[in-house]
Amino acid sequence: MSTQSSKTNSNRQRKTRKSSRMLRTWCLGGFVIVAYIFVFYYFFVGPTGFRWRAIYSDAVYPEGEGFEIQGIDVSHYQGKIDWEALRNAMIQKAPVRFVIIKATEGASMIDENFEDNFYQAREYGFIRGAYHFYSTRSAARKQAYHFLDKVKLESGDLPPVLDVEHKRPEQTTEEFQQDVLLWLHIVEDKYHVKPIIYTYYKFKEKYLSDARFDDYPYWIAHYYVDKMEYKGEWKFWQHTDAGRLPGIKGYVDFNIYNGSYYDLKQLTIQ
Q1: Given 133, 152, 207, 266, which residue has the most CB atoms within 10 angstroms?
Q2: How far is Cα 168 from Cα 191, in angstroms, rounded to an integer?
């Protein structure tokens, strides 16, 4: 009897342990699913999020006074561009006037399509620009000199662009701002023009709302809203990442310049 009872208790203990493991697994799985839904909503669905894509409808293209000057930005994600087809492309019945091209990232990377895109943009009559994607893994000074080494802007090109979207969690806001300013100052000393700062609406409000950045032209990313919600001054508005144009396979970012074509030309390096 005692042996049978011992076996019974042992079986019950194994079942209990198994049930506990299953419960922990289900709880962990549930937590992961909830966390994934939260992150996906915050970054991709929330109406004030950065990478918000219209899931149930087409992109919203703002119209209005001062929104006639249209442009795009491209990188290797757009693949091989058919520039002949893109030459006469229209966005909301307005011609594409400018193309801003990804050039470098961090302290060593160069976009694989940069040289061809940069050359073709000028050949086909677009006002062109080049941007550097700021990395939290490299020193700001090294990133600035890497950009200057790989990108040779000419008269008629847009000022250099710093794309800044991330801050290291352990950095204070002041330390982060000092790094961004270092990049800007080094590049500004080379070209004698104020670089353009690209960032998204929330990031600007949280980390770059400092008087030291007020003199720099801003390129603000804020998607799928009828009007720019950023209250400060801005030069460019990236209003969708789901644009479609002849000559480009897949999606491309659409941008509006806040001013006339004459103003855009005046912004370029003289």
Answers
A1: 133
A2: 28
**CB-CB contact of 255 with 228 (8 Å):** no
DSSP letters of 12-37? HHHHHHHHHHHHHHHHHHHHHHHHHH
Tokens of 20: 């506990």
Residues contacting residue 213 through CB under 8 Å, at least 6 positions apart: 177, 180, 181, 197
What's the mean pLDDT when you consider all of the chain?
A: 86
**What is the Cα–Cα distance from 193 to 196, expressed in whole angstroms?**
9
For 155, which DSSP code?
T
Q: Which amino acid is at 58?
A: D
Q: 165 catalytic, yes or no?
A: yes
- Collapsing DSSP to helix, strand or coil, 91 comes out as strand
d(CA 149, CA 151): 6
- Active-site residue (options: 68, 115, 165, 188): 165
Tell me if the pTM is above 0.85: no
Closest CA to 254 of 28, 117, 70, 58: 70
Beta strand 127-133 with 109-110: parallel, antiparallel or unpaired?
unpaired
Average pLDDT on 49-57 reads 42
Alpha-carbon gap, residue 161 to 156, rounded angstroms: 15
